[in-house]
């Protein structure tokens, strides 16, 4: 499947592709001479907004808190699988975990000198996604490690199909960030593995917009997806309208109109529903 390397800069409210051959590589992109664009789905200069919005899930914003979900576990009405790290320590494991959208599941993609990104934890901005001991080999688990700007902390993002992306070490583009064994619903380490186009190597990006708290005795319905007290769910939405099943009282999540992804958490024994809002573009 063809892939296209993307630019982290957010231009005109839409994410911009590094597609044209230029003398100087744009910020966040490798030298265009280093990869072949012959088979890429290059967009024309006059591409309209609908064409560009097709890329909404597949390119991260630079310097915006981002929830990263696995296509392998990205299904409606369930927790899904999110990038996650332990909430403390200088060296932390990096894994897939059911989505809850706390700070240890939010990430900053920042442009690196010479192209690519460093990927920082919102929980501790001094920690970066890291290949331990520069061991670029199949099956190597990834970690969070103090940022130092070395080659083992610089990553490239490749548009996969307009709906997702692969993430690869900048200097080892044959290896992809991969959920071990294709685990869907459970906690699992994330590793380097040869790129094969599977859904456990496909990632989506959701930009954090804010949060809201709603109250309801039993459950709240978001479109066709109910969230029951004491549970957690993440899903796509077309609007911010909700309905409390206890009294059929309509409500609206007080986040931006661009909200199209929610993570909803209701602690045990509580009638509070904490809603975290995200947008894909």
What does this protein structure show overall?
With 281 residues, this protein is mainly β. It folds into two domains: 4-205, Trefoil (Acidic Fibroblast Growth Factor, subunit A) (Trefoil); 209-279, no CATH class. It has one helix and 21 strands. The strands form four sheets. A seven-stranded antiparallel beta sheet has the order 7-6-3-14-21-20-17, with no helix packed on it. Strands 4, 5, 8, 9, 12 and 13 form a six-stranded antiparallel beta sheet that branches. The longest helix has 5 residues, at 49-53. Mean pLDDT is 78; it is low at 4-54.
The tally of helices reads: 1
CATH topology term of the largest domain: Trefoil (Acidic Fibroblast Growth Factor, subunit A)
Mean pLDDT: 78
* SSE succession: EEHEEEEEEEEEEEEEEEEEEE
How many β-strand stretches?
21
Which second-level CATH architecture of the largest domain applies?
A: Trefoil
Rg result:
19 Å
Shape: elongated
CATH top level assignment of the largest domain:
Mainly Beta
Distance between the termini: 24 Å
Adjacency order of strands in the biggest sheet: 7-6-3-14-21-20-17
Q: Please give the share of residues in helix.
A: under 10%
Q: Name the structural class.
A: mainly beta
């Amino acid at each position: 499947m063809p892939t296209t390397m993307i630019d982290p800069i957010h231009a005109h409210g839409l994410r911009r592709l590094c597609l044209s051959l230029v003398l100087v590589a744009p910020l966040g992109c490798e030298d265009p001479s280093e990869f072949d664009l012959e088979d890429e789905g290059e967009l024309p200069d006059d591409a309209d907004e609908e064409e560009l919005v097709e890329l909404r899930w597949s390119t991260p914003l630079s310097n915006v808190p981002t929830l990263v979900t696995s296509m392998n576990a990205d299904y409606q009405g369930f927790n899904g699988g999110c990038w996650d790290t332990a909430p403390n320590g200088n060296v932390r494991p990096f894994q897939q975990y059911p989505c809850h959208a706390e700070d240890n599941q939010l990430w900053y993609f920042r442009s690196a000198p010479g192209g690519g990104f460093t990927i920082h934890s919102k929980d501790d901005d001094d920690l970066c996604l890291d290949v331990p001991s520069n061991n670029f080999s199949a099956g190597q688990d990834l970690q969070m490690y103090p940022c130092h700007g070395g080659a083992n902390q610089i990553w490239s993002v490749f548009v996969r199909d307009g709906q997702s992306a692969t993430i690869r070490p900048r200097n080892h583009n044959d290896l992809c960030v991969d959920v071990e064994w294709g685990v869907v619903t459970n906690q699992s380490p994330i590793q380097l593995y040869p790129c094969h186009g599977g859904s456990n190597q496909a990632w989506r990006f959701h930009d954090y917009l804010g949060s809201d708290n709603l109250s309801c005795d039993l459950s709240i319905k978001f479109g066709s997806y109910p969230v029951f007290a004491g549970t957690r769910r993440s899903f796509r939405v077309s609007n911010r309208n909700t309905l409390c099943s206890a009294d059929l009282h309509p409500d609206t999540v007080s986040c931006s109109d661009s909200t199209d992804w929610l993570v909803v958490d209701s602690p045990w024994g509580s009638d509070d529903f904490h809603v975290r809002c995200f947008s894909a573009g």
